[in-house]
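Q: A reviewer asked whether we had any structural model of the full assembly, not just the individual parts. We don't, so I'm hoping you can provide one. Inputs are below.
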Amino acid sequence: MTQDNVDKVNAIIEKYGYKRNILASNLALNKKFRFAVFLPKYENIEYWKSQIIGIEKAAVEFGKFGVVLDYFFYDFNAISFKKEIKKVLDFECDGLLFAPIFYEESVQFLNEYQKKNIPVVMIDSNISSNQEHAYVGQDAFQSGYLAGRLSSFAVKNERQILIFKITREIESTSVYKQRIDGFYSFFKDNEGLTNFKFSEVTIKDSGIDQLNLEMFSGINSVFVPNSRAYIVARFLEQNHIKGVRIIGYDLLKENIEYLNKGIIDFLINQRPEEQGYLGINYLYKKMVLQEIVENTHYIPLEIILKENYFPVKK
Amino acid sequence: MTQDNVDKVNAIIEKYGYKRNILASNLALNKKFRFAVFLPKYENIEYWKSQIIGIEKAAVEFGKFGVVLDYFFYDFNAISFKKEIKKVLDFECDGLLFAPIFYEESVQFLNEYQKKNIPVVMIDSNISSNQEHAYVGQDAFQSGYLAGRLSSFAVKNERQILIFKITREIESTSVYKQRIDGFYSFFKDNEGLTNFKFSEVTIKDSGIDQLNLEMFSGINSVFVPNSRAYIVARFLEQNHIKGVRIIGYDLLKENIEYLNKGIIDFLINQRPEEQGYLGINYLYKKMVLQEIVENTHYIPLEIILKENYFPVKK
DNA sequence: GTGAAAGCGCTAACAG
DNA sequence: CTGTTAGCGCTTTCAC
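A: Here is a predicted structure for the entire assembly that you could use as a starting point for your response.
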């Protein structure tokens, strides 16, 4: 049969509602689907550990359909990242799951990777310039917008809000900037809320001793646009400062501790486990089941209080 | 081979990490897996429509692995329910998805059904007396507890809370009672919150004209323990009563309308679509993949504000 | 280029 | 009761 006729037959076949039996097809193919997983080293980083847990869960579930994973981990610095990039580029596989922590380097990498014509799904943060790639994660801007609402709750009088940035030595993605943008946008969109004043503070992750009481004088609410809200909570607790509303991200053990103590009020959960799972699920659906899959999957902005936090049962 | 030897071989096989190829197995079996879906009629009831959407999604996804669904719908009355029970009992299938709306009748039905030795998964509400059955849905008590927290937010002064029950003609499950229990429990557990006073009102679904201004005199917060918060919201809007916090359930179109207007403050989402999907998913995993599946799957208590509501893209 | 045949791993039917 | 075999629906190989 010529390609022409193949097409014709396929057309007719589809017309009469034929569905290829994916079980038989994959049985006959008798092949493994190799997916590369390219992430920051997760040891001691709870958030990335959760991502891996979700990924592993997917690996077990889809393993019976031939899915095999290979991991590539990079340290939190651009040099390690670049080194690992080479390995990933050389690696033969059917799909890539990727967390683009370093923006510039990731853009470059994706451009390079594109030549291989292998589907890519990004988790955690998105690189929107490459629309053809899939994304599983939150809408960072909107999550900041929501945080704005959460800090504005049921408050009539003057409020002083502090945006507290605690950054890594080597700063990476722009996620936390998008969150802050969203945060301010909320107050811009709600003109009635003129009684809110803002200030910002930035410290390095290593310089936690930089915290001082002055920073918090007159402050009613603190917004921590990454997972380190517990650092602020701990400081306030140690200094017996009460009645400050704290809003942060991610269900780290330490954050949960202060949530349960009532010191942190709100945490926005990014569902890292679900992200990892859905990332692999995307590749599975696309490559193994050969389905058409939605390119962008936004994880809902989940608000966690003491009263709706439940440890993940395992 | 005797059964004895089969067992021995299987033991050895398992010892060396043999995994039966589920694709080949199901291909050879060449059988359909029939699941019965036994639910209230969903026409005009958004919540149940969503459940069906999730169920249908699962049906498409698992259809390629041989899953076929048969539907049995009952009206919202015990007579129709009992009539449909007969059909379900007579129906040959490999699994049952079931919403136990009428408590007494459901207990009886489940006892009867148990004889058939077919796995059952319940959605929406649970019948805990039958521990051997699976459940996908929320923890109703805890959701009320959370609602308690939501009504207590950042409030220092005296608060008058109204629990507003709008019930169906024929009342069904005890879900809303569990929610109210949980609601009160929150205030019991938080002794500091002595400035809260409570009252309750009950009206029938059909008697919406029973609402009157007196009910709301002095009220600061209203808790509607089912999906009909929009009825209260509409009444307050029509009567230009502002500044009352409303907490309700479910993302019905009408609820969303008042959420976006800022009249309803919080909605607790039960994720009906996910419930339906996961219900079928449970049966699929158990029967088709022959996996061991967790018997209870609690849907997270999702707090929805105007700022984190996004219409489901389809 | 084309069509027949082997075989993926498993189950069920069928002889022995 | 046991062991052999056909065949599930598809892909790939191998003769022609």
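A: Points you may want to mention in the reply: Residues 1-2, 24, 26-30 of chain B lie near DNA strand D (CB under 10 Å from a C1'). Residues 267 and 274 of chain B are 17 Å apart (CA to CA).
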